[in-house]
Amino acid sequence: MLILCCGMVMLNACVKHSRENNDITLAEAYAPYFDIGTAISLHSINNETEPLLRKHFNSITCENEMKPIEIHPEENIYRFERADSMVNYAIRNKKKIRGHCLIWHQQVPDWFFYDEGKTASKELLLKRMKEHILTVVSHYKGLVYCWDVVNEAVDDDSTRIYRPTLWYQIAGEEYIEKAFEYAHFADPDALLFYNDYNCERPEKRERIYTLLKKLKDKNVPIHGIGLQGHWSIYEPTEKNLEDAIERFASLGLIIHITELDISLYPWEKMPRKMFPGENDTLTAELEERFNTQYLMAFNQFLKHSDVIKSVTFWGISDKYSWLNFYPVAHRRNYPLLFDRNMHPKPIYYKLLELPDRRK
């Protein structure tokens, strides 16, 4: 308890010092190293998070509005209005735009995969995918500077590399290569990323590495990997995080942290209801572990800022985090830098001063 209290006293002292210098934002503090971004919804530019968005971040990612089911719900219908509103907001406020995501096994309409009630042929699926990617990337050419082209194609099952999605079942691994080729054709200047979660776990890291090396060996136009960063106070370890960064960087890839949040709870994949008596209170001990994990991660980001060029949080405030609903519905979580009242947490100020402390 004494150690914890001393730690909190030191943290509070740093908070007081940093609040006296609150003209600088997190994006400004890290500008020499990498961008600081956030995922937003259309509501984010119209609700109480907007002042935080405008002030603290220099890059945005549309959380859902650029995914196929939102932007291309029917074969001959595109709906760009919602995403356009967010892109226009970013342009007005001089923020970069990460495109997310072109190809995923979720939030994609069924029409891609069927033809008159039967499974589409490989040729038809690739034709539809090409048309989709060319249209979307061309629409935002010169505005979106990078794209998560393929999202989560590697399976969680350690016995295989590829997730057995309809994309893979119909077109095989070729759909991944073609997706990057089509995106590069549509905008040769855009940076193209493969994006996935749990990339720091050694076993999955190696299967992702195998995929990426194969793409590089075939001269597929891929420029980087997105480490989603849906982490917790339990993982990743510092060693696993650094090993992943170095492993992927060895392929000559840029690294973006694309969906960062740190949960108080261990990883669970399957949705469930809260258990009777399950506690979702933020204790001093949990907050200390939360702070420690964020500091560890950002120390690694700074150490490897020669290859890490963007760090994007998956949201702004705990109030609107997806982790309040997944994997456990209505369990309060506290994964971001701003609390439910839109106030910066102590860790915000600690991260704010970290670049200077490392000099």
The CATH superfamily is Glycosidases
Cross-sheet strand order for the largest sheet? 1-2-3-6-7-8-10-11
CATH C-level category: Alpha Beta
Distance between the termini: 32 Å
> In the residues, how many domains can be counted?
1
Described by its quaternary structure, the protein is single chain
Number of helices: 12
Which spans have pLDDT < 50 for at least 5 consecutive residues? Answer: 1-21
CA radius of gyration: 21 Å
Which structural category fits the helices and strands? alpha/beta
Strands, total number: 11
Shape: globular
| Overall mean pLDDT | 94
Secondary-structure element string: HHEHEHHEEEHEHHEHEEHEHEH
Helix content: 25-40%
**What proportion strand?**
15-25%
CATH topology: TIM Barrel
